[in-house]
Request: fold
Amino acid sequence: LSERLGSVFDRLKKRGALSESDVSTAMREVRVALLEADVALPVVKSFIDRVRERAIGQEVIKSVTPGQMVVKIVHDELVATLGSDSQAVNLNAVAPVPILMVGLQGGGKTTTTAKLAKRLTERDRKKVLMASLDVTRPAAREQLRTLGEQVGVDTLPIVQGETALTIAKRAMTAGRLQGYDVVMLDTAGRTSIDEGLMAEARAVRDAVNPHEVLLVADALTGQDAVTTATNFDERVGITGIILTRVDGDSRGGAALSMRGVTGKPIKALGVGEKVGDLEDFHPERIAGRILGMGDVVSLVEKAAQTIEADEAEKMAERMMKGTFTLDDMASQLKQLRNLGGLGGVLGMLPGVGKLQKQLAGANIDDGQLKRQEAIISSMTKAERVNPRVMNASRKRRVAAGSGTEVQDINRLLKSHMEMAKMMKKVGKMGGKGMMKGLMG
Ligand code: GDP
Ligand code: MG
Reply:
């Protein structure tokens, strides 16, 4: 039996590096997934080129299919492209720190300004002043004031007849005189990019020298995301992006598009209409969303765990032969902590549902696991292989060595005996089924 097992593993190992045809097949799928997620075409192209380069010739992790391996590479590259860390709004400047919010009309600027102000107030304990520079729509400034009242953040008193530029300057003066930490400036937007809007944003930028210029953009804009992001970045200069309506049907492609073309970090996500609906940006989540969720994510996790799982399989093999030493138990305990439960190991054997439950019932907590590992490492090799030699004086020695009590040693020996018994039982009913499990 173990000979045949060995040859199965050999075959998997020998499969070696990813071939060009493996990669090309997979890239076709990835391309479709990205386009379906509304990632802009030029971004898809350059992304796939990068992945292809990384993937060809890459060693396939043992017992993962080449397809799964490629998916893992794609996932990792997505996370890297999106930014492998979530970036907070940067407030490292002399107060009051000006933050300029820009974007197309209806993108969610005003709502996001209030959301962010609320967060800076509550989470970062900052004193924030908000001002609406939107003099194009009569109700725009009222909208921000109402939101301000809702989130308990001050807004600059409204003066009729001012231009965006004078409001911005007045806001900064008020911020300075009244001791605000942050001044958030919410600008007007047009339905599409026009030079007037950009010129106004630039004038404000030059007047207040904002520490952050945040582009607020609708995640549902799909292919337009690139144009919007490029335009604002080239003509005004942005320092970060906040994507809104991520609560909708969007698969997050806009995140990749915008980040892809501007290289600017995504700083937060709007996930609803309410003022509390602002989330930190987690690249893994968007990557999963872009790749189509559950299936792919679990594949990726599987790939990542495979090396550990290989080890577990080897152990399962030994268990089936009925040899289960204290050394096995020690590495089993370590895996319990790493792999998320003995269930993970036993899960590879067929028909062990009941036993798994029994083990779960044994209810081993983390501290106890560490203690048990300590006890085993205080034993001699001979004691570990043959625990029957543990007499009273040996137990006292091990207890002293591991900082535990003799009764802890007794308990450990007892649970080892029970585990060994169980393993033997599993081994007897294993056989064929296990082979099938491993090959299927
Ligand atoms: P502005 O023109 O850029 O200032 O956009 P507004 O802040 O006025 O928002 C336009 C609309 O989008 C409003 O009805 C908001 O409630 C809505 N909105 C903004 N952010 C989000 C979001 O993250 N999710 C959802 N579902 N709606 C949002
Ligand atoms: Mg607005």
Remarks:
- The first strand starts at residue 97 and ends at 102.
- The chain has three domains: 2-85, 97-281, 321-439.
- The pocket of magnesium ion (ligand 2) is lined by residues 109-110, 134, 140 (CB under 6 Å).
